[in-house]
Design brief:
Number of strands: 15
Strand order of the largest sheet: 3-6-9-12-14-15
CATH superfamily of the largest domain: serine acetyltransferase, domain 1
CATH class of the largest domain: Mainly Alpha
Oligomer: single chain
GO biological process, one term: cysteine biosynthetic process from serine
Catalytic activity: L-serine + acetyl-CoA = O-acetyl-L-serine + CoA
Keywords: Acyltransferase, Amino-acid biosynthesis, Repeat, Transferase
Pfam families: Hexapep, SATase_N
Shape: globular
Distance between the termini: 50 Å
Radius of gyration: 19 Å
GO molecular function, one term: serine O-acetyltransferase activity
CATH topology of the largest domain: serine acetyltransferase, domain 1
Largest sheet: 6 strands, mixed
């Protein structure tokens, strides 16, 4: 183990565990040895590994892997919050997704996690005034992962996007901490209006597959939006809404729906 990683490991148990799991993969599936070393074991920190993955996935004939890697490394070095968010997002996936059994799975195999981390770099670009590069990153995320998140949208930490196919999140959307959403969710506008026009999702909200939340509306903390619903009005805290258009059908069923991932409408 390189000296730098040895010094870091006691202070970063998440990254230490990822490296231990990667070594186990190398032992159990030698054909993936090169993949694990290039993506994980070769890097001293989780941030460096994420920067490498960002560049590897989003590079194309239009922009090189080296340029994208330098951008991502600068983002992680100048904004420690990105690394904190990446770890919180990883633990969110590990805790909430029953298909996730190891820490390395989101980093290596889950496009929802990878898309969110790439979006975070794009958001950093947007916030630092490099807006054309941010939009370029948005385009590549959409092309690579099937996830379209405007770089101006604001996300908290502990985000899980399960399966992550056909996710659309608009420019002025805000997503709080510890939010869970499934595939085909839209946080969009209602027409051609300009300005603040997208939803504001509170902490701990669970958004079911295929749900559409439209307009500059608020979804209160710890609420649930049932799969396939179309939400056009504010949702109070700790409620469940369902239908087209969505109506309140009951309480949220638990203190933190996004953590329990219980989609049953009968849960009270």
């Amino acid at each position: 183990m390189p000296e730098s990683r040895a010094k870091l490991a006691p202070f970063d148990p998440v990254w230490q565990r990822i490296c231990e799991e990667a070594n186990a993969v190398v032992r159990d599936e030698p054909l993936l040895g090169g993949v694990m070393h290039n993506n994980l074991l070769h890097h001293a920190t989780m941030e460096r590994a994420l920067a490498y993955r960002f560049a590897l996935k989003l590079s194309s004939a239009e922009i090189s892997e080296q340029i994208l890697r330098e951008i991502a490394e600068e983002a992680y070095e100048t904004s420690p919050w990105l690394g904190e968010a990446a770890r919180a997002d990883l633990m969110a996936v590990y805790d909430r997704d029953p298909a996730c059994h190891r820490y390395l799975q989101p980093v290596m195999y889950f496009k929802g996690y990878q898309a969110v981390q790439a979006y975070r770099v794009g958001h950093w670009l947007w916030e630092t005034g490099r807006r054309d590069m941010a939009l370029f990153v948005q385009m590549r995320i959409s092309e690579m992962f099937g996830v379209d998140i405007h770089p101006a949208a604001r996300f908290g930490k502990g985000i899980m996007i399960d399966h992550a196919h056909s996710i659309v999140i608009g420019e002025t959307a805000v997503v709080g901490d510890n939010v869970s959403m499934l595939h085909s969710v839209t946080l969009g506008g209602t027409g051609k209006e300009d300005g603040d026009r997208h939803p504001k999702i509170g902490d701990g909200v669970l958004i079911g597959a295929g749900a559409k939340v439209l307009g500059n509306i608020k979804v209160g903390a710890n609420s649930r939006i049932a799969a396939g619903s179309v939400v056009l009005e504010d949702v109070p805290c700790c409620k469940t809404v369902a239908g087209v258009p969505a109506k309140i059908v009951g309480e949220a069923g638990c203190a933190q729906p996004a953590l329990s991932m219980n989609h049953s409408l009968s849960a009270e």
